[in-house]
Amino acid sequence: MGITQFSGCSGHARDDARVIGLLSQALTSDVVFWGPLGRSEGVAAVERFVLDLRRHPAGAGTMVRCSAVDMPGEWARYRWAFTTPDGGPRLAGTDVVHLRQGRIDQMIVFAGDIGSAP
Predict the structure, then answer these.
(1) Residue 29 or 87, more confident
(2) CATH T-level topology, domain 2-111
(3) Do the beta carbons of residue 40 and residue 5 sit within 8 Å?
(4) Backbone dihedral region of 82: left (phi > 0), alpha (psi from -120 to 50 degrees) or beta?
(5) Residue 54: enclosing H or E segment and its boundaries?
(6) In this structure, what DSSP letter does residue 90 have?
(7) Contact 26/13 with Cβ under 8 angstroms?
(8) Would you say 59 and 83 are in contact if contact means Cβ atoms under 8 Å apart?
(9) 46-96: per-residue pLDDT in tens?
(10) Is the pLDDT assigned to residue 5 strictly greater than 70?
(11) Which in 73, 76, 86, 114 has the greatest CB count within 10 A?
């Protein structure tokens, strides 16, 4: 349940109020979020990250989950892509999440691809 709501809020929700509603359904109140700027806690921290992403300087972008969800037990991972309008900047990565009672309580965002081993 949590992954579906989180995926929907980043790219498909039409307005910020809908994003906040979806996040409150997807996340536990004490969620731990490891993003590009380090560690933060709470739904408000994830809201700031997602809303900032939606307000990208190149224009309102689209975030989509672009893989199946690999979920062995209470951990899950999936790939995502963020694209700005008119062929602007594109960013892809992988999220790893931990679920507690169907909601995300830990989230790690890995942006970019991992290079090949030497």
Answers:
(1) 29
(2) Nuclear Transport Factor 2; Chain: A, (3.10.450)
(3) no
(4) beta
(5) helix 43-54
(6) E
(7) no
(8) no
(9) 998 888 877 777 777 777 888 999 998 999 999 988 888 777 667 889 999
(10) no
(11) 76
Instruction: Report how far apart, in Å, the C-alpha atoms of 45 and of each of 27, 56, 82, 93, 113 are.
Output: 11, 17, 19, 19, 24
**Which amino acid is residue 100, in one-letter code?**
R
CA distance linking residue 66 with residue 95, whole number of Å = 11
Q: Per-residue DSSP letters for 68-82?
A: --B-STTEEEEEEEE
Residue with tokens 């209470």: 74
Distances (CA, A) of 59 to 31, 62, 88: 28, 10, 8
CA atoms within 13 A on the CB side of 25: 15
State the amino acid at position 85 in one-letter form.
P
Residue 14 has pLDDT above 70, yes or no: no
The encoded tokens of residue 78 equal 């999936």
